[in-house]
Amino acid sequence: MTATSKADGPILVVGEVTKRFGGLRAVDRASFAVARGSITALIGPNGAGKTTLLDLVSGYDRPDKGAVHFEGRRIDGLASHRIARRGVVRTFQLTRVFAAMSVRDNMMLGAQRQAGEHLHRLVFSRAAVQRTEDTVHERAERLMRAFALDAKASEYAGALSGGQRKLLEFARALMAEPRLVLLDEPMAGVNRALGAKLLDEVERLRREEGMTFLFIEHDIDIVMQRADQVVVMAEGRVVAEGPPDFIRRDQRVVDAYLGRRGNAA
Amino acid sequence: MSVFDLDFWVGAGVIAGIYGIFALGLQLNIGFTGIMNLGQAGFMCVGAYTMGILVVDAGWPLALAFAAAIIVAVAAGVLVGLPSLRLRADYFGIVTIAFSEIVRYVFQNAAFAGGNQGVIGYDAEWRAFQAWASQRLATIGLGEATQMPLLIAVWAALLLCLVVLQALQVSPWGRVLKAIREDEDAAAALGKNVFAFKLQSLGIAAALATIAGFFLAMNVTYLYPSEFDPSFTFFGYAVLILGGFASYGAVVVGAVLLCTLTEGLRFLDLPLSAGQAGSLRFIIVGLVLIGLSMFRPQGLLGSDAEMQLRA
């Protein structure tokens, strides 16, 4: 954790959040905090409610009960674009690139507060529109180089390989200059070398820009190596929370992954 | 009537121009924003009637009435969009077609809109302009066809709209629309107010419908409700299918093709009654559309790559 984390308190606080789908409690009174500047992993068996929780934090769904606070302000119930504007940007489990747009346009779209997105400014402040567009373009080119996407800049995003799409989605999220990035299985379908590159970038951004990351991951080795905090969910509940070494030895985590019968045997 | 009748083809060109402006709005909605506006004829109806009523009953100058008509039609677009744009694409389409029919039936039955008699007598200023323009055109040898000034005006308006829309489409604003068409959840995750952009797209389409409605009104000399039948919207979609999606140039090509086809088929000399011949024209148009969707589904100018990427 960075030095600022203690002074500023947690960047994200999930408090007693519940979400029901019919009779199923997908998320059941889940509570945890994400420290500012941390790389926090959200783990748990299939159906534990991890993606639903990410949906609740990013505004894709509203909790039935409980509250989500980002930087001290309540964000649950806000529209997803408003949450994104506050600095929380997510990626999706099944990559969502704008297929029939160029890689460059995908990237440039990610930038926030663009003058050229307002009709009246397109007419009345052309100079400001051009200025932001130049800045956005420059940042897009820089990030595309960092993620080795620059050779594909003019191609349709739909023509990229699965791994390249993951990189594009991640790079595009960074265009928004978020303070908290939510990654839903960033490593799924990405080869090891590319995945390592992506995680190196995560660590660099945390170190150099103070970004916070909350990511869902199934590969326990990766979680143990890269995360500095781990939140474990099972059947909608948060069953454990702490540093990787602590989690590794926690009996509740072993139960959650192996099942109670496994424990009894 | 000869195939080389100038008045006839000038008239066909006017209709093509009107369909072109009308379908530019549909292209903005379905081709670039991914919203299925099936109520474009309704917006055109609101615009044209507003203009006609303001001139005839309130005595407004034509230009001012036209400007007011655009504002009213855009407001109608926003009003229709507010409750319905959050719906899924197909349900939104149903709401817009319902709106279109409600408007038509209201104007058909409301006293202020002249009922089935419609609105007449709003085009004196235009006639005066047309007479003046015809004289000027005669000096350069273009005075023969009476509708020539209208043809020039409608195509000038079409090209102007096209240039403006094209400029919007390559702007950051147009980039957001395209992203919404591709995946609106992902666009929202990047901080874009999807709903507001859809509303703007629909409002601009309603404005374009009003411009088309203005020229339609000048072309037919009086307004009556059945001119604004939903089939007008469907012909607009036929323009898009012929020309291709996600391209404004394709709208122009599609409009010219559709009108050449529907009007040109009038020259078919068959031993049929007028009604039968009319029906046969539309059967042929339908067959052409089916053939096109089979052999060139992206339309004549549409991008094959974009279609496949989204499939």
Features of this protein?
heterodimer; A: 265 residues; Rossmann fold; 6-stranded mixed beta sheet; 4-stranded antiparallel beta sheet; 12 helices; 10 strands; 42% helix; disordered C terminus; B: 311 residues; mainly alpha
Overview of the molecule:
- The complex is a heterodimer of chains A (265) and B (311).
- Chain A is an alpha/beta fold and 265 residues long.
- Chain A is 42% helix and 23% strand.
- In chain A, strand 1 and strand 2 (24-35) form a beta hairpin.
- In chain A, helix 4 runs parallel beside helix 7.
- The radius of gyration of chain A is 19 Å and the shape is globular.
- Mean pLDDT of chain A is 90; it is low at 1-6 and 261-265.
- In chain B, helix 1 (6-31) packs parallel to helix 6 and helix 1 (6-31) packs across helix 10.
- The N and C termini of chain B lie far apart (47 Å).
- The mean pLDDT of chain B is 91.
- The chains are: A alpha/beta (265), B mainly alpha (311).
Largest β sheet strand count, sense and barrel closure of chain B: 2 strands, antiparallel
H/E topology pattern of chain A: HEEEHEEHEHHHHEHEHEEHHH
List how many beta strands of chain A DSSP finds.
Answer: 10
Strand arrangement, major sheet of chain A: 6-7-8-3-9-10
- Overall mean pLDDT of chain A stands at 90
Shape call of chain B: globular
Count the DSSP helices of chain B: 13
* Order of H and E elements of chain B: HHHHEHHHHHEHHHH
* Rg of chain B: 20 Å
Distance between the termini of chain A: 39 Å
Strand order of the largest sheet of chain B: 1-2
Q: What would you say the CATH architecture of the largest domain in chain A is?
A: 3-Layer(aba) Sandwich
Largest interface (C-beta under 8 Å): A-B, 41 and 27 residues
Q: What kind of assembly state do the chains in view correspond to? A: heterodimer
Tally of distinct domains of chain A: 2
